[in-house]
Amino acid sequence: MARSSAKLVTAIRQTANRLAQGANYQWGHMGSCNCGHLAQTITQLDKWHIHGAAMWRPGDWSEQLRDYCPQSGLPMDEIIDQMMYWGLSKADLTHLEKLSDANVLEALPPNRRYLKHNQCDDVVLYLNTWANLLELELVEQPLLQGIGIGAATGIKV
Fold first, then answer.
1. pLDDT by residue (tens digit) across 82-93?
2. Domain map of the chain by residue range?
3. pLDDT per residue over 4-49, tens digit each?
4. b/e per residue, 9-47, with b = 16+ CB within 10 A?
5. Under 8 Å CB-to-CB from 103, ≥6 apart: which residues?
6. Rounded to an integer, what is the distance from CA 102 to the centroid of its chain?
7. C-alpha triplet 22, 4, 144: angle, nearest 5°
8. Is 75 exposed, middle or buried (0-12, 13-18, 19+ CB in 10 A)?
């Protein structure tokens, strides 16, 4: 899962709130889909800029992530670079686009674990749940380090 930080948690929550308040959502549009909305929050670019950046290379977010090259100089790769700088991985973004991270899905109420990747309400639920998990990590990490669990013990925190 993503490298947790208060900044990333805030960005994910802002994205969920914007969508919950009726922001234009369109799963088939590179700037208005699940990843596109988070990219808007992180990069402060509008949906048209993100969509335009994606048109330099064929494919949806999953394909763009598969073909990502940090040295390409392509606009979409620069957007992905910014998102990764905030602690996200290619896997996190691939899961976000499909609402498929097992840890996030397991944290959902049992009757809501079968999300539709192209339904705005499901995206909002996924984002808020993901933010909760990352926030929990932020709280637990100092506690674990305080009791001696961490680098000295070989346990990754």
1. 999 999 999 999
2. 6-146
3. 899 999 999 999 999 999 999 999 999 999 999 999 999 999 999 9
4. bebbbbbbebbeeeeebebeebbbbbbbbbbbbbbebeb
5. 1, 133
6. 14
7. 140
8. middle
